[in-house]
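Why run this: before we spend reagent on co-expression, it is cheaper to look at a predicted model of the complex and decide which construct boundaries make sense. The entries below are exactly what would go into the expression plan.
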Amino acid sequence: MSFQKLDELGHKLEALEHALAILGADEATHMAVGGGEKRADAMAALAGMLHRQASAPEIADWIDAAENEDLNDDQRIALAEFRRHYTNLTCLPAEFVERQTSQRLRSEQLWRDLREKNDWKSFRPALEGIVSLVREEAAMRASVLKLDPYDALMEQYDPGNRAADITPVFDKLKTFLKDFAPQALAIQEQRDAKRPRKPLSGTYAIDKQRALGLAMMGAVGFDFTHGSLSVSHHPFCGGVPTDVRITTRYKTSDFLSALMGVLHEAGHALYEQNLPHQWGHWPLGRARGMAVHESQSLFVEKQLGRNPAFWRWALPVVERELGENWSLDDILPWVHHVERGLIRVDADEVTYPLHVILRYELEQELVSGRLEVADLPEAWDAKMHEYLGLSTLDNPADGPMQDVHWPGAAFGYFPSYTLGALMAAQQWAAFEKVHPAANSEISEGHFEAVNDWRRTNIWSQGSRYSTPELIERATGEKLDARFFIEHLEKRYGQA
Amino acid sequence: MSFQKLDELGHKLEALEHALAILGADEATHMAVGGGEKRADAMAALAGMLHRQASAPEIADWIDAAENEDLNDDQRIALAEFRRHYTNLTCLPAEFVERQTSQRLRSEQLWRDLREKNDWKSFRPALEGIVSLVREEAAMRASVLKLDPYDALMEQYDPGNRAADITPVFDKLKTFLKDFAPQALAIQEQRDAKRPRKPLSGTYAIDKQRALGLAMMGAVGFDFTHGSLSVSHHPFCGGVPTDVRITTRYKTSDFLSALMGVLHEAGHALYEQNLPHQWGHWPLGRARGMAVHESQSLFVEKQLGRNPAFWRWALPVVERELGENWSLDDILPWVHHVERGLIRVDADEVTYPLHVILRYELEQELVSGRLEVADLPEAWDAKMHEYLGLSTLDNPADGPMQDVHWPGAAFGYFPSYTLGALMAAQQWAAFEKVHPAANSEISEGHFEAVNDWRRTNIWSQGSRYSTPELIERATGEKLDARFFIEHLEKRYGQA
Ligand SMILES: [Zn+2]
Ligand SMILES: [Zn+2]
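The model came back. Tokens follow.
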């Protein structure tokens, strides 16, 4: 039986993915510094085995043959996802993948070096090479998937996402934010003038910060029998659903950034831990995609973790763990701090979407050929000026060279960040509508109802639906920017 | 070119072995408790891939063809070891290996359960099944390798070891120890009567014990850029040569056992870290075998770490880390404590070999069929009585049920422990002969010369020579019990 063969293949691929996930997390957390070269060799060899086994030509026949077998409902939707997965994995010729992989590695290395030197001129030819490969890639994906080229790239990260649907949503948000960001900054300035902020300065021992993080993770639902928290230079959520590894990074002078990082990664972890285990060895059992994943981390970090109700409950926990006694009026200005800046990863929830929309717009132009790399610094600067009133013309390191995505040939990924923020707000609104006690429960540290809602509507669905379908089914309507806009108005629009 | 194919295969196998080694170490140190089932599935699948790839039939042709190729010296000895490895791996039919694996897993599970209940009667049929499979296995290995059956089993662990060579060495040691163990105990008793021991009791915080362990590991040569120390329930040395993971287990009431454990595992780690890296992806680049490996751990733990000269240097380090001020006369009675006991793993260096020789003798009889499992408790008891003056007839859990080796079908492994102890003493004697300053250097915390000697004579040789050849080349003569006997007499035979 062909479905049986796919099922067995799923177990083999899961073993290799398990190994890669744990080796990856281990590398960032526990590996000896001298172990890196052999680790890279081992992971490259395992990734090669995984790719070869997952893209073997006979799998196409198994998928076709399984269509005619007597399958139950789970198997039928699993089969559709096997096919989607296989098609996306095999739509590029091996020769192209090799060429792209080596060019991408070279361009990433170059980027690391030249970004530090703020040397756009030397980096430009490498990025031109990458963009030309990405155009090739997009054309090939588009022809196999019967999609527009940029949609075919997004399809890797968020199945079902289409620029034609996203652009109007982003436009509405952009129009709002161009006015709202300066307003929010002015409101913040007035409030700080009226009541100067109490600095959160102090020395917070790492073991105390860790205890605080563990307490918060546990409270929002992290399952410590299926995961752990450790330290790494770049925080991440890795591992496997039965053993999710999240990390943070501590500064003894600033507990809030590590704590918010822990909540963010714990949000990713909750999704992984609560995926449908019975489908664990099928593509169907995976998280839906990057945007939905980010919606889960932002749900915990922004919708819950920066909610004033949350801090009513959290402040006594902070006092217990760190020994500091703050009021809501002390902490909220820091939790809701807004700042106009050049760097996407440092941005707050008001300005972050403008960084993403800028990239979303520019990368579509780059992929389509309407924009050339040579003209990118000017195009970036013009948008940066329009959206945030800042210039990067003399500072490409903090302009078009600031992210690893483009040097790494990951075009079509950026929208996921802001789609995640929009989805998180829409999910919270849908939950609050059916559960009016939402805020009061959270102010008492009860997260059961909100987790049940997410478990039912998001986590347990795995990859059953496309990204837009999943959100529409969970929230009762298509993705709409108004929920996020209302969320921002409520949190940042009041003096 | 066929050697080239073997070389490429070596890289692939190394990647899978790397994954298995790190996943194994991670499981014991950092895995979430609920992650075990998926981890076991993943490791079983990877081990299956490794076995299939390492035993593929075409490899035999590559090995044969490579014999006629123009190879350099390294390649030629690598090829011989590729052949030895392949032959040992493929000399059992797949059907047999599967049958044995499943029966072994069942018998190990049963053993865990029944040992706790001290229930020999229920365990006996399972062990009979295992022994019958081991007889089959030994016969098959013997016929392929043209060796005696028991030698064919030992060949897996220590290439070149033959019962005909080992038995006289063990007999000499046994004859000595049967008299010497009671003498050493009497000497200890008199000394304790004359000068009652100062108890080493205190509360030693785990982070201080860890700092002490790290200081000692570093001093004896452990390279922290290629390895680390963590905690696990059963101490081990795992990982890969570029990232060796050693573990210990702490009791706040007893710093000495954790410290000695750290030194033991650090001895294993030194061997792994100093293997010839240029051969890392060939079988030739591996440690020679279990006995030689144990000789390296026992060298550090017993020859160095229990040497009074070592403690002249170590006591101030202990004082610095733990804040306790002991004299040599306080600490040495604990470091050299001898005790007659039923349990091999708890035994000291005087009585330990008698536990091993008992097993070595009995397992040869079991493999040859001269002894049946039904008669094992009486046979065990008779030897226990003769060698150590203890009875286990009413206590099979601490008699023939005490080790996992037999339930796990690992016959031919036990001699490695005592061979390691003999080799360590012989290596120390050889080193001291060419380096008379040995003890005075160690009393000053200088381990460079002794490590250089071992690097040259043992570590850098990888699997170039058979076990007996390696020892003869390193020490100038065949394995002889007299070095270990002289070592014991010096350390335990003087009032
Ligand atoms: Zn995230
Ligand atoms: Zn050992």
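Strands of chain A lie at 227-231, 237-240, 243-248. Chain A is about 65% helix and 5% strand. Bring this page to Monday's planning discussion.
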